[in-house]
Amino acid sequence: DAGVIQSPRHEVTEMGQEVTLRCKPISGHDYLFWYRQTMMRGLELLIYFNNNVPIDDSGMPEDRFSAKMPNASFSTLKIQPSEPRDSAVYFCASSFWGATSYNEQFFGPGTRLTVL
Amino acid sequence: AQTVTQSQPEMSVQEAETVTLSCTYDTSESDYYLFWYKQPPSRQMILVIRQEAYKQQNATENRFSVNFQKAAKSFSLKISDSQLGDAAMYFCAYRSEGGTYNTDKLIFGTGTRLQVFP
Fold first, then answer.
1. Average of pLDDT values for A76-97?
2. Which of A40, B12, B24, B66 has the greatest CB tally within 10 Å of its CB?
3. Which site among B7, B43, B110 would you substitute to test the A interface, given the most A Cβ atoms closer than 10 Å to its Cβ?
4. What is the reported pLDDT for A109?
5. Mean pLDDT of chain B
6. Pairing verdict, β B112-117 and B10-14
7. CB A1 within 8 A of CB A27
8. Measured between alpha carbons, how far is B3 from B106 in angstroms, rounded to an integer?
């Protein structure tokens, strides 16, 4: 398996622009997670889905952030409009409930977002 | 709410030596899972080792082992025979057990940067 795939790997944009980050989970996984990593706040969960349904979006910082999962093999995280404080590394992770009791999360390589 | 604390922002070790990274957590739950993830400069988060709270035996994966002290809420990672490739950020993480949706979150510590010197 190719693992979790994220695109783009790097994104540089200007303040006010719309940014869309993409994720393809591991085939067969039924949970998908979006995390953000910054120096100040570390790794924080933004939102997660189970069977394409958003379960907990309490970590989404504000209305400028939105996430969708139209099918089992694709998810997007959109920021509109983007601000410099959104600069971070965004990770997508997926897991399969019941594979083991641990339900390990497998992470993608991340997208480094820079908002100028 | 559960919290995870890594009190060592940076650690260093000489190649072939042993190093221990500390992690403590706070929870009122009795069943949960603990993980150590490694993040090398490539940014990829790699699962190193995992532990179920109800298992008294400490987990071991090759050169990596944990010292799980449930009463003390401590979960330290020991790296034996350190190699240059072990240099990375290491994150301790907690996940609840319970079977409900909200137990699927991973709660991460702030990380420990490990340097390995030849």
1. 95
2. B66
3. B43
4. 94
5. 91
6. parallel
7. yes
8. 10
Write out the DSSP string of chain B: --EEE---SEEEEETTS-EEE--EEE-S-SSEEEEEEEE-TT---EEEEEEETT--SPPEETTEEEEEETTTTEEEEEE-S--GGG-EEEEEEEEE-SSSGGGG--EE---EEEEEE-
Determine the average pLDDT of the residues in A39-58: 91
Tokens of B86: 């072990």
Angstrom distance (rounded) from CA B68 to CA B51:
8
- Candidate from B45, B101, B109 with C-beta closest to A107: B45
The label of the residue with tokens 């490739």 reads B85
Contact B102 A55 (CB under 8 A): yes
Is the Cβ–Cβ distance between A91 and A107 less than 8 Å?
A: yes
Quote the CA–CA distance of A39 and A112 in Å, as a whole number: 13
Is residue B99 less than 8 Å (CB to CB) from chain A? no
| Tens digit of each residue's pLDDT (9 = 90 or more) over B44-70 | 899 999 999 988 899 999 999 999 999
Q: A16-30, A82-96, B22-36, B85-99: which range is least confident on average?
A: B85-99
Between vectors from CA B43 to CA B96 and to CA A72, what angle results, nearest 5°? 60
What are the pLDDT digits (tens) for B91-110?
999 988 765 545 578 899 99
Q: Which of B35, B105, B111 sits opposite A45 (nearest CB)?
A: B105
